[in-house]
Structures are given as C-alpha cells and as structure tokens.
Amino acid sequence: MTSPFEALLPSTERALLHRVATAQSEGRAPSVVGAVARDGRQVWSGARSCVEGHAPDADTQYRIGSLTKTFTAVLVLRLRDAGLLNLGDPLEKHLPGTGVGEASIAQLLSHSAGLAAESPAPWWERTPGSLRPELGDVLGDAPLLHPMGRRHHYSNTGYTLLGSLIEAVRGEPWEEVLRREILEPLGMSRTSTGPQAPHAGGWAVHPWADVMMPEPVEDLGLMAPAGQLWSTASDLCRFAGFLADGDDRVLSADSVQEMRTPAAPAEAGEWDSTYGLGLQIVRREARTLIGHTGSLPGFLACLWVDVDEGVAAVVLANATSGPSTAVAAAELARIVAEAEPRFPEPWRPMPEVDEALLELTGSWYWGTSAFGLKLVADRAMELYPLWGNGRGSRFRACPDGTWTGLDGYYTGETLRVVRRPDGAVSHLDLGSFVFTRSPYDPAAAVPGGVDEGGWRGLSM
C-alpha cells in the first residue's frame, strides 16, 4: 500500500515487506504490521499474519504500551508553553501530597527522579486499575530508589504522576485533554484509550511450543498515562511527522526539539541509548533515531523517526514477546534511507544582501585556531573550524543584533560583534572568547595582551 503523494520503488517495497514477514515468522507473532512515512507522509504499509488471507492493515488498532508516555510528555510541554508551570518546578508545587514532591517535572519526564520502575504488586499491566484507586496505591510505601537527578531509571509510576499533574492543572481527565489537544488537531481518529474495531487481539505465544493463549485487556486506571493507548500504524505515522517537525496547533518545532534533546545520563556501557523528555534517543548504524518502544501483555510496538533523513517507521505486533519491534522499525527506516535517500533542497541565493553582515563573513581566529564564519538564511550564522578539531555551532539572529548558539559547545551562548569607536569591527565576542581577524591581532582587545615583539622565528 502506498500513499498517493509519493510511491516507493518496487524493490524498496519488497525489501520492506520481507522485513515485516521476517519479524512475524522469526518472532512467532500472530500478526505484524509495519508502515513507513517520509517527510511527514505515509508512503508504505504492509502486514503478515498467521491467518492466511486475513492480514491486518495500517488502520487496525494495536495496543502501543509505553508509546503512550510520549503523548503524556507532549501534554506536559504544552502546559509549560502556556505558562502554567516550569519544568524545573517541584511536583509538589502543582500536585501536593504525593510524598515525592521534591522531584522536578523535568526529572519525571526524563525518568531521572529516582522513582521505582513499577507499582507494588499485583502486576499492574495484568490487573484492573481499580486495584490502585489512589496515587499512594501506585507509589507504595517506598517510591524512591535512587537520589533525584543522578541517574536514568525508567519509571512507569513517574508517568502516572505526570498524568495526574495534567489533570490537576487542566481540571479535566487526562484522556479528555489528550483527545482535544493532540489527537484531534493531528487527525489521529483511530487512537483511543480503549479498543475500537477493527483491532487486534493480544496473545501470549508459548516459548517452547507453537501454541498460544489470549492475554487479558485491562483498563489501567491512574496508570493510563504510562501505557493505556491503542493506535494504528497510520495514526502513528501522523504522530511521527509531528515529532520530526512540530505543529503549532500542538507544540512548536522548538519545543519538540527540546523533547528530542538528551535530558538523562546514559547508563554505563549504553552510550548508544539515552532519553530526552518523553522520547528515547538511540544510535543505530551511525543514524540517530528518536521515538519510543512499547509493550503490554499481548502487544509490542515501536515508532522510530530519523529526523535527518525525514523517514519514520512503525512496527506493531500482537504478541507478549518474540518479535523485536524496535529492531524491525529501525531496519525499515534504514532500508528506505539507504535505497532511496532524500534529495537535498535546491540551493537558492538569499533574497537580499546585508552588507554589514557580509562584512563579518570569512576567516576568524580564536588564538591560533582558524575558524570560518558563514552567513546563511534569516541572518543566521555558522561558525566552523577550518582544520582539525574545534568547536563549531549554528547561531540564530536576535533582535538586538547578537546571535544565540543553537548546538554544540556554544548552545545558548551569545555571539556579538565588538566595534571600535569609529564603527569598524574590532573582534567577535563569543561567551567571553575573543575571535580576531588574524591570530592574536595586536589591534584587538585580546585578553592578556599581545607580546610587543610579535611573531618570531627560532633564534639560533
């Protein structure tokens, strides 16, 4: 199945379907659905099933488990952007009486608040949420296992608290806020807190025999914001486009970029995996993928987005264990990115030239290290080392005539032009570092001064 907007090559489609078929066969799953989106539009979907002639499609609902957490995180960022809270606020400020109120909202979002991973017994994923009617029942008597802010420790209970935070600030149930603020604006009409036909049934497959049994489907109650949702491959492709580019109806591109930025330390030996604000961030074969995995009894799910390539992949399965949806989704994205790499945008000159900015371009020196400064669209600047290693960054123009660093070492730092009394440029100041037109320019205000003898050779 392809989108009317842009078809993939037949060879690419075959490779994608082969990967989905392999995931279903080797993973011993009753069914697997895969879908790929490119530049925000679904361009392919395919499925395999153990029932001949009855494969699901991209409109079939599966339970997506912890992918729900990303939706909850978006709702929290919306509260921040509306000025109703700050991510550095302690939870206690907005949701008092939990017993873990000193944890910050940012720490809860990034799983670094020190909370336990699960609620007390019985196993919450296979029992009704009515067994845990209060937050105290979810948290238990000893909810904190680690010092706050010191390590990443995945916590379902933390996202339960975030769901209750949303309800406290909005004054509405979490699911109503979710529907109004995310699902409806993004056109995700097939995403819901309960199953809606057509939907897959959840199954457990015996590890030592080719037999299976149905898994129970429970309403998770207070823990719904951690894993309740059902969705489809098509709906998740729409959500993937939002995670790549943002949507001002839901969350700005800058705020989505903030979600995609690592916010928690990686565990020792896991340098290819970290966590942002409600998003997993992984490295696979030199590609950075953002998204989330999910599992509940009877279901597995994964959504990965390769923002650089503009490719997203979704894989859904109705088995408790077996197929690695995370690996399969990463490989679907890789297949498209390698077989049909995106075309770069055509180069276009700027609509107008600002001579004062053009004067700043070219080579600059921090001490003896050479850098290039390039003027790009929207009066932005790019600073990059001309040889060897060095600290480069992109800079966004500010109304006051300065620039703010967007990435790398200089993220958030201010770049400004320092002029002499006659208006001529003396040097650039970047977070107190002085960049001059020649190495240690004696005419510029180089900290520590420049030796009066100037440059010299080796005296013999």
Automatic annotation (TrEMBL):
Its EC number is 3.1.1.103. It comes from Streptomyces pratisoli. Keywords: Hydrolase. This is Serine hydrolase domain-containing protein. The keyword Hydrolase applies.
